[in-house]
Amino acid sequence: MEAELIALLRRRIAPHPLVRLGPGDDAAVLRLAGAEECVVTVDLLMDHVDFELAEVDPRRVGRKALAVNLSDLAAMASPPLAGVVALALPRRGGMDLAVALYDGLLPLAERYDLPIAGGDTNSWDGPLVIGITLLGKVTARGPLCRSGARPGDRIVVTGSFGGSLLGRHLDFEPRLAEALLLAERYRLHAGIDVSDGLSLDLAHLAEESRCGILVDLPSVPVADDARRLAEQRADGSTALDHALADGEDFELILAVPPDEARRMLADQPLGVPLTEIGEVIAEPGLWQRLDAGRRIPLLPRGYQHELR
Amino acid sequence: MEAELIALLRRRIAPHPLVRLGPGDDAAVLRLAGAEECVVTVDLLMDHVDFELAEVDPRRVGRKALAVNLSDLAAMASPPLAGVVALALPRRGGMDLAVALYDGLLPLAERYDLPIAGGDTNSWDGPLVIGITLLGKVTARGPLCRSGARPGDRIVVTGSFGGSLLGRHLDFEPRLAEALLLAERYRLHAGIDVSDGLSLDLAHLAEESRCGILVDLPSVPVADDARRLAEQRADGSTALDHALADGEDFELILAVPPDEARRMLADQPLGVPLTEIGEVIAEPGLWQRLDAGRRIPLLPRGYQHELR
Lengths: 308, 308
Hints:
homodimer, 308 residues, alpha+beta, CATH 3.30.1330.10, Phosphoribosyl-aminoimidazole Synthetase, Chain A, domain 2, seven-stranded mixed beta sheet, globular
């Protein structure tokens, strides 16, 4: 069946100038054209954790598996180079499922001119697992890292947050074109995409930059989904709580020097809004801004893989 | 817990000149130093399919997950560049398991000077899944592919075959140093590593090269494990049947021009024996050599992922 799927992929996937050798050999061979550096990222998505296969169109699952990786490239401001797809398929219906997963991910790959260069297809008695590894290019400006934020930088975010569980976590647009445009036009110090949760990913950025982040909570853009989820749940959580903790928004958090942030916010060069929600400070940790220059700690919340 | 594991990896993994940015960011950044091409390969290993976690030391599982990928690089005659590790860990005992998996794979990585540049760590209620993606360099001789065999080439294999299930499938040595040495000293036309089964992988090589392969069965090196397994099973399968069909030997099959093959076989430049087991012919398919220039079809057998 792996042979069958490879034959199908060879028909479906158009030749790409960056792929010298595609699916079907022991490894793929990519053209790098004298590149000095590349970026590499991997994400594994699992049934019952990242999606419920029984409840959704598998094409949305395939699309999400690629989109989360494209979001990682966005966080690095790295143009995509190539990807490989690893599947652990349930035996029953596995072939149809594989085809549907590719039906979902290939149009997104094509939109970003990303060749799928190879992969590994397996079957088992367990739930679906899909793991995608992407390589990205490093532009002359270098990769955007989590560690580059400096005190005084403004914290700017794309889009709005919260309630992704209502469907956006499957169908979100990775902010890759947006990240590349911003990195091209403005000086960015640091970036991260929001997968775990806005407050938790702000804390990650602060920690890697050995700084703190002071958040102005009223300026956090709250998604309509966050309001809907707060109403549905009626468990005392506010829409803002959902915006801070839900995760899987796959929006960008950027640390930007103040003058650049001003320019960027005035320009609003993207189809999606850019909003300033805080600033980088020297004192480590995540903080909530109060009146009159006071601040209190803000608890980072979001998704963490629990192990016992 | 992912943070905990990243902290541990950062302590465990020594800085490597090829890794500009290692575990902990949205992606790793690798130094390519102006490379024209690279190789990329991925393998996903799953509990109850590729190992039985309940029955083996998890360090052997971690080691195998890396070794099968190194074997793919061996098949391409590609020196390793860097790797990323994706884990889906059972929640109970997941942290200890992750540490043991890395304890198993890191010494093998170090032996091949392969940096683990990043990864993705998840927990779930399913069985262990470990997926490793490796990047490899392309030498001046270019990658060794499945498609390069030409009629008249001799089929040369490393080592012996069959019965890997008795333990060798976990503890095998990937033939990477051997492949690099052979590619350096001899002109090789094509290569593949034996994961699915000797006869099935011979058929893969023949198919990708649009040729046939004529196998001289009495010259196939049969492993002692194949004899032991044939005795244990007592189901009518011979040791040679096991050698042809068991798979997971992770030895190399090479297609070599006749003069180079003669030289290579006389030199025996490796610590492991090189054996000629057949030749490439124009007529497609896999064939068994009989007396007096006659031949009959040889059925390719081995491991195939079954899907319904």
